[in-house]
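FORM 7B: Structural annotation worksheet

SECTION A. Query
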Amino acid sequence: MKLDLRGPVTAYVVLSLALLVPLARFYWPAANGLDVTGHPIGRDFINVWVGPQLAFGDSLSTLFDLKAYHDAIGALFGQKLPFHNWGYPAFTLAAFWPLAQLPYFWALAVWTFGLFAAFAAVVLSQVPADKRRIALLLLALAPACLINAVGGQNGFATAALLVGGILSIDRRPVLAGVLFGLLTFKPHLGLILPLALVALGAWRVIAVAALTTVLLIVGSIALLGVEPWRHYLGETSAYQMQLIRVFEGFYTIMMASVLAGARTFGVSFGVAMALQVVVAIPVLVTALWAVRRARDPMTRVAVLVGAVPLLTPYAFNYDLTAIAAVLVWRLVGAWPSEPRWDRICLLTWLAPTAMMPLNMIGLGIAPLANIAFYVAVLATVWREVSLGRQPAPVAST
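SECTION B. Predicted structure
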């Protein structure tokens, strides 16, 4: 079967390829395994690869000493590298350990292609068989996916867990709970899930998610002791909050939250946080309303993944990967949406890459695209309700 690249699909493909040009400015391979900015290729995978080597090599405390951790990274790579900090909960160390046993670039390949395959499997499971090839092409070229691929990021994992979990709430509540429990490795991306599950009456999902989380924590304590958790909840959490207070460095051009967008315009941290709250409260309220009334699991996905980057101040462009799944469904006709939202969806598609040069020049407007996308999703749910369709059934208890 030939791929149909006519109509809006062509625009998405062409513009995605065009945005590879600005990406090259930050990630193009240079020499000695480094990119043009002096980071190892797959720069954010460094933590995944280095962390377990230190933790299981009698250097666990090094993870939580910023200078010692930076020096240890340089020693492992044989040269001084730009600054990194460890920011994952303790149970990830055992999960990442197998990758740390491989040479860096082999491990990076397994991480990138393996996680993309898992994410793609979740997305394509909702696409008719005759449209899966074009859906896979679109997903691979989605700017959010390209950011994850070239930056060694974890967005494929978080998107697979979040989207897969939401799709499984009704028919596979145990699987949904396990996936949501695993998502606690990035807890700020699941802030809305407990309330959404309560709104749906998904008690079995809640119980399994809680049990999964407890087992992960208890298992990590049995393996590594309580100290990593003390440091994670103390120094690591405080340092990550300090990052958005100071708002300096490369990471700022990748931030997609309302707070970050406001900071690029020179707004103080206090005012930016107030704006974050002003946006987050109505998003939370409307998301709970919409997810309760959405009939289709894919619509629930659209509601919740659209809400996530608007609720947390700590959202990055690689966290927008789950939204790419919804946009791919829309493009191939798996998830219907009104044509009047075409421009908004295209802007949302481009935002993960386009936001980087815009943030650099003080125009942090990417959150506006995310807000517009979320409003479009709410309008879709409202249209269903206004047509007199019944709310979706609650999840099995």
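SECTION C. Observations
Residues 269-293 form the longest helix (25 residues). Residues 51 and 245 are 25 Å apart (CA to CA).

SECTION D. Sign-off
Analyst initials: ____
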